[in-house]
Write a structure and sequence with these properties.
The structure is a single chain. The chain is of the alpha/beta class. It has 2 domains: 132 residues, Roll (Luciferase, domain 3), CATH 2.30.38; 135 residues, 3-Layer(aba) Sandwich (Rossmann fold). It has 10 helices and 14 strands. Strands 1, 10, 11, 12, 13 and 14 form a 6-stranded mixed beta sheet that branches. A hairpin with a 7-residue loop joins β10 and β11. α2 packs across α3. The longest helix has 18 residues. It is globular, with a radius of gyration of 20 Å. The C terminus is likely disordered.
């Protein structure tokens, strides 16, 4: 059975854990960076998911993390680089990424064939090599709709697309970085009939807002009824979505655990703030066990994003990359 057949299915808790350990053993053998990291920690035989070694996400800025079972890679994705050096994700099989985001989008948002999809991701488009742009561009292609497109600075033209989409009987979906969605507020566009997906991040263009304040402002000034947030990153191949409850949920092949900020090798229980660890089985040909630089709390099979890890929180986390 191929990895794709194993990964992209609904898993019980036990099935997920069994597959996670199978992926762990595969990556221990085929991903040199992860194997070296696990060996340094002396964690080659974890007995449960909470004991799994999670690779610090910062290593994507300095190391090539990819399975040695492949002689080359399909694609390179780079982070936005707003905080300096860009992370690089060498993707061995881009079709795995397509399978992941296509299933997740269809199950959380809808079928792109029935939609007009607008991308408001100017900084990602300008910098290039963005996994988010790749995803949105693929969804635009799947929509098979001439009105589906990216907008950079010509936001005043969006109103025309809003009207055309309604006349065509298509569901309008606007996927945008936070500051571009806030820019729309200056144009007085009514998005009450649209699904809006914010992807986070002011990218240094505007003052940072909490997720609650951002959503409140967007709902009020753009008349948004269906507002989602997407949580994803360059280093992973899966995404999570949340609605008005601000509780994110990912696909069946993605799990979140929360680690102690001062003891990063220890996983803590639900409803306690800590660093977000992600198990992303879709990233089987890279590293599926990532310690992010975000904080949050776990709420059953969902999680709530609290923000970035502050420098004062990094005393324990620094040990991971020394």
């Amino acid at each position: 059975m191929e990895w794709r057949d194993k990964i992209f299915k609904n898993h019980s808790i036990q099935e997920f854990e069994d597959l996670a350990f199978e992926v762990f053993r595969y990556q221990l053998k085929h991903c040199e960076v992860y194997s070296d990291y696990v060996s340094v920690l002396g964690k080659v035989n974890p007995s449960e998911l909470s004991e799994m070694p999670f690779l610090p996400i910062s290593l994507y800025k300095s190391r090539k993390i990819i399975s040695n079972a492949f002689s080359n890679y399909d694609s390179i994705f780079k982070s936005s680089g707003t905080q300096g050096e860009r992370s690089i994700h060498y993707v061995a099989d881009t079709d795995v990424y397509k399978n992941s985001f296509d299933w997740t989008y269809r199950n959380f948002i809808g079928n792109p064939e029935d939609q007009t999809i607008i991308g408001l991701l100017p900084n990602y488009v300008e910098q290039g090599d963005s996994s988010l742009v790749y995803m949105v561009n693929s969804l635009i292609d799947n929509s098979d709709n001439s009105e589906s497109q990216f907008f950079l600075s010509e936001l005043d033209q969006l109103q025309e697309v809003v009207s055309k989409s309604q006349n065509m009987g298509k569901q309008l979906v606007v996927i945008g970085v936070a500051y571009s969605l806030l820019d729309l507020c200056d144009f007085g566009i009514d998005l009450s009939n649209a699904i809006v997906i914010e992807t986070g991040g002011m990218k240094g263009r505007r003052k940072e807002l909490s997720k609650e304040d951002l959503h409140s402002k967007l709902r009020k000034e753009l008349n948004i009824i269906r507002l989602y947030s997407e949580y994803g990153m360059t280093e992973l191949l899966s995404q999570a979505y949340c609605t008005k409850d601000l509780q994110f949920q990912g696909p069946p092949w993605m799990r979140v655990l929360i680690r102690d900020l001062y003891d990063p090798l220890t996983v803590i229980g639900d409803e306690k703030r800590g660093g977000i660890n992600i198990v992303d089985l879709a990233n089987v040909f890279g590293c599926s066990f990532i310690a992010t630089e975000d904080t949050g709390i776990k709420l059953g099979d969902k999680f709530q994003l609290m923000g970035r890890i502050e420098k004062s929180d990094l005393r324990g986390c620094n040990l991971l990359v020394e």
